[in-house]
Amino acid sequence: MTPWLLPATGALIGWFTNKLALALLFRPRSPVQIGPWRLQGIIPARHQRLAEAIARTVQRDLLSEAQIARLVAEIDLRDEIEKAVATAIDQRIDASRLHGLPLVGKVGGRFFTELRRVIMTGVAKRVQDYQQRVAHQVASRVDIETIVRDRVEHMDVGQVEELLLGILRDEFRYLEWMGAVIGGVIGTGQLFFLDR
To answer: 3-class secondary structure for 122-159?
Structure first.
């Protein structure tokens, strides 16, 4: 017997079995009946449970309610809110019309300017509190888990496969080659035991 045959055979078997095991994660996509056994890839067979697990993980570890609230609160709305309030004040109180009113016309310009300043100061003080409340409302109403679960459940099994392979392709290749390495090591070990 040639000395390289056992390690080479072991490596080939290790590589092939790992490649087959990884392929069986996704294939066959539809159930196939082989005698009394029903064969279907693990991912297609457990598509709904996978969707639930991905959604739970995203909600818990990636986009929790607190993280969403923090992200929304970090959006600087102060300038936009102040501009909107200033525009609303300017549209509602026209200083030129105030001059035609008795008593108000005499103090209208200064009164309008002071009124605008007081309102804008009050708005500025409340913007951050308002933004925090809005952030928590948005976070509590956005159900990331449901959104992700529904999205993954409605994906075609081929899309789920592409999603997972896009993330794990290199790791799958590593597992295939590790099967070859381990098979080769076992074949080499068998060669030493057979020589004794």
So the answer is: HHHHHHHHHHHHHHHHHHHHCCHHHHHHHHHHCCCHHH
Over the stretch 63-117, which tens digit does the pLDDT of each residue have? Answer: 888 888 888 888 887 788 888 888 887 777 665 566 566 665 556 567 777 777 8
pTM: 0.63
Residue 89 DSSP one-character state: H
Provide the Cα torsion 65, 71, 75, 78; round to 10°: 50
Contact 182, 16 (CB under 8 A): no
CB 38 within 8 A of CB 32: yes
**Distance set, CA 13 to CA 6, 8, 179, 180, 182 (Å):** 10, 9, 8, 7, 10
